[in-house]
Amino acid sequence: MLKQCEVVGELPKKGKFLKIFEWTDVDCGKLKNVKAIGDIVHFIGSQFYVRKEVLCVLENFRKIYQSEFDSGEMVYKQFVLMGSPGTGKSCILALLCFFIAIKVKRPVLWLRQDKRGKVGGTTTRLFYQGKYYEWKDPEGTMYRSIYDALNNTVSDTNASWCVLDGLDKRDIKDRKWFDKFTLLATSGQFPPNSVPVHFFRLCLVPYWKQSDLEEFGRKHMQIEESDVDARLFVSAGSLGKFLDDDAEATVKPAIDRIKKPEDAEILLTKYRLSGNMQNDHVRMRGVYDRNNADHYVDVGEWIGCVTSKLVLHHLAAMMKPNFFEELMRIARGVNDDRLEDITFEAYFHSLVYHRRSMCVEYCKYDNVNRETVNNWENNLHADVGSIEWKELSVVE
To answer: What is the top-level taxon of the source organism (predicted)?
Structure first.
């Protein structure tokens, strides 16, 4: 089987990416050279941006499997990375695959399914004895054949790691693969209440904070300030959408599927699905405390939200103000000032659209050379007041 493989090469023997469990808070905001990985898998790029959320995910992985790495005895747990598209699940999975194959010296069988039209496809890779092998595998037949072969030849003390990327619950159920993987990266179409909790450990990869997206865009991608704002308008918490020049075109189909308030309400849930509607491109998931690694594996600490201003504009006419009040509550709970600000704007639009009573208080002031004179008492005028109305009139 391996002799007939047309894509074969040597695995890298060194690199900073092999020290992922040595990364600390000092590494946050820095780029790590992963070109050796990118040259093999072709989707991770040449640089990997370290954020606090990555460290917390790796900490949870290490807690589960450190004893297996130390003693060689198998840990019968399946580790599932969940999260919205474009948050880095596949990249983290790639780092783990190379670490396990090179540092721990275990066979790694890895199927990656990419459903993005012409650029997508399904590929199976095997990392074995210092080499990598690669096959196009649209039906997963090569993955299953190698899986069976490895089970027949590898002892428990040197067990292979079987990895799935991009498959959701339906994919795995149709192929009867619930017991055919150790690691899985999947989307929100994988409800936690559908898996055996004794064997599965679900770990959320939260959406990207505005500060990390801005840092990555300006300093590492040399994106102009105005372009950064335009990209945030569409993408918000997804790095994949942030870097996509045509992100609005990929988000629009998901927006179009939100046809009634019940569809929009699901966006604020942690993992609930709506039939077959794929809504992960507009629903972001996060945790209440990004610095607490325990929250990443505790479904009770997860949140669902909408971080795209483009999507909120669409929802303002459909949803009543209480929807945005709930989203502002979530934003305050996760300490996301940007999310609270853009939600408040949508909340105001919803109040107007639904002709609700409101009172706007205002205060006029002069912004006079504040960078050199911080004399705000003299700059502020006494012109204050409020505008209040009970019911808005309709203007045609």
So the answer is: Eukaryota
